[in-house]
């Protein structure tokens, strides 16, 4: 028999936990903000693992839209804002950006230096770095790096040629080799050789970056976001040690060669070294340490090659499912290249209007960043209401829900590139399409990502025809056990060479 004092103690503990949870989950209802019923301990994340995390947020948006500028949402027991109104989203991302200038993305500069990159860091440090890095991604810089992209696109064509007699092909694996090589050579002068070497080391370590394919890893991810102070005290890391060791070694050697004058390229690494080494004469800009330089190189490389290859894969899936769309895009590529003597020049890429529409439609359905996160850095009164978003509250922009809203995009599950004609774009709210975010904290590498995706797809379309192989499970589904929007079970293609 349990002694009375122990039973009393246990009942007090249980009562306190019950009171704490009840109080935590009453945050939004106490403020008369609409909210879906949370459940302990995951809040409104109970379907994570059964549904992709982006769809969890997207489905919540579709259930709550129209009930005000925002609704409440719980990530574990932490209250967050779920944006519902497009004008309110514009306020968050652009008009009142100063109140939402940061992201609550976990980083641990001490134990995991590569995690302290532009996507995660906050405050003045972010502002200074963003200001210094923005000139790297101008159209002029993209044009200078364009021949390097074309060089890798030719290797992409050769790689598919080499494997074309196989019974089926996973083009995701091909695309990820292409984007790794493009970003490596264009941004840093790194010869990744992923299209030339089947056992490329960069792909072996790269698999760790977006590895969230277990429920435990996803919960760790949200614990780090919600309880970041505790996560830092516990020494938790975002990045795998093997990946950090490899990348630090590569960057150290690259920096050594550049500073010794062995290699000189007008690329992203050169600009990072200029920031690192040039004297600063004001209080806003500052020199980069080596770890800070490595972190920026790291996020541009790994985030860029994964998201771009995923966008290519989903676009190819839709080309295989809609052969008339595939043929129309192919004919445009050939017509434009004919104008430029059979070459795919930088100017030619700007004329691939329909192919770009296909990419935009793919990114509507399968956005690379879902959802968008912002952090309220000062108490903020929501326009035309008495509602206050308190400092420290995380704000979610459920872009995948917006992109699948039938009131914005009729029949949203249908792949229809004509949604992105100039006329249709101009008739929509500017916040109705957010695959790369918007405002001062949008994706800095957007322009480069679109160039490499467009070039890669143009080369594939021009030289190959493809259909879906029977090994692919239809209808296509998003893998719910991962963070990137990958095809569940993988997508397999039959590939035929064209004359």
Folded structure, characterized:
- With 499 residues, this protein is α+β, with helices and mostly antiparallel strands.
- Helix content is 49%, strand content 7%.
- The chain contains 18 helices and eight strands.
- The strands form three sheets. A four-stranded mixed sheet has the order 1-2-6-3. A two-stranded antiparallel sheet has the order 4-5.
- Helix 11 runs antiparallel to helix 12 (290-321).
Keywords:
7% strand, alpha+beta, two-stranded antiparallel ribbon, 4-stranded mixed sheet
In short:
The protein is of the alpha+beta class and 499 residues long. The protein has helices at residues 4-24, 53-64, 86-95, 123-133, 139-163, 171-188, 201-206, 215-226, 228-233, 241-259, 268-277, 290-321, 323-339, 346-350, 353-365, 399-403, 422-426, 446-463, and strands spanning 70-75, 78-83, 372-375, 380-381, 388-389, 394-397, 464-468, 493-497.
| End-to-end C-alpha gap | 85 Å
Helical fraction: 40-55%
User: What composes the largest sheet?
Assistant: 4 strands, mixed
Instruction: Tell me the structural class.
Output: alpha+beta
Provide the succession of SSEs: HHEEHHHHHHHHHHHHHEEEEHHHEE
What topology, given as strand order, has the largest sheet? Answer: 1-2-6-3
Task: Evaluate the radius of gyration.
Answer: 24 Å
Q: Please, what is the oligomeric state?
A: single chain
The number of helical elements comes to 18
* Beta-strand content estimate: 5-15%
Determine the mean pLDDT: 88
Inertia-based shape: globular
Question: What is the number of E strands?
Answer: 8
Point out poorly predicted stretches.
none
